[in-house]
Amino acid sequence: MAAAAQESTLLGLWDGEVDSRRHQSSYQTNKVGGSPDWLPVISRQFPRCGQCGAPLALVVQVYCPLEDSPYHRNLHLLACTAAECSGRSDSWVVLRSQALEKEVAAVQTPSRPAVAQEAALSATDWCDTADDWGLEGEEGDDGWGGGGQKDIQVQEAAVPETGVGAASEMDVSSGLQGLSLRESSEDIAVFRPFFISVVDESDLCGEEDGLEHAQQLLREYERREGVAVGELQESGLSREEKYEKTRARHGDAVFSRFMKKISLCPQQIMCYCRGGKPLFISEPPSNMAQLVSACSSCGGPRTFELQLMPALVSLLQRKDSSVEAELEFGTVLVYTCTNSCWTPRSDTPVKEFCFVQTDPDQQLFK
């Protein structure tokens, strides 16, 4: 049974660096960069680039259980940082991991609590309601300088967990075909980790609070890191004027539509709308529907779930500053199994589908 489209679109924003001295991240932490946090029953994964064979770096980790589902659920987006692999879909990997609550509880000990951050549980269960990412969770001084939520929550429309059904005899590990998951002594790039906060896109329409929060987070980051990510308005131009200027420059209807859509909150680093429609930054291939392959585990169809946005590019900095990471993209579209199929007691993630589009004018987002 297909998942119903989510009514609201949720925007992910930068919300403070993950300080390992104060915060212990877990599989329930929604973040950019750092090292992957796997569910306790999932074996550690070491995917490699489909182009050059190098180990991949974690770009985004999302905790996104489905509403009314007994499963914990994670998405890990990893990419190759080699310059020659930048902007290639085969240099990215999306892994979906799931585990039943009872399975997780069975392996957890008092010294390894399920919640990595104190008082953060209410802000990490993304699926409390069908149109909320946890915005009703407690707010206040979060100790990160962001002044917002400690984590974000993703809700998704009710989807029956079909497990494997008739496909129970299929090898779920086929989701990782072509990947080398063995541990490697090679250097794996690690991006500086930071938390993700969220606003509902509809709250930005006629409301300044959500936009001001985004601007506040951005200004705080720029003050700390000395990085000029860019303001909502440049040189006194309104959003409409900036959109028209961009449209006149490019004459590209798809790109202009993309710019107009994100102009209300250009600082967004992620857009989530499971079952919704992706926002293309350039003309998609005419056979896009055919390019989105069937689920590698159950053979069923996939649905759009989330996409990474251009503003994320300038925020990706390697922890080892002596080595420069090359990761450029316009947007990264992620499609996942519509039924979110899962083999009971499996310890191997399912590889999902991603499609990378390059930015026609990357300098607009730097």
Automatic annotation (TrEMBL):
The record's listing under InterPro entries reads: PDCD2-like_regulator, PDCD2_C
The alphabetized list of GO BP terms reads: apoptotic process
Any single GO CC term annotated in Swiss-Prot or TrEMBL for this entry? cytoplasm
All copies of the Programmed cell death protein 2 C-terminal domain together span: 252-357
Q: Which residues form the signal peptide?
A: none
- One Pfam family of this protein, by short name? PDCD2_C
**Coiled coil regions, renumbered to chain:** none
Q: What's this protein's name?
A: Programmed cell death protein 2-like isoform X1
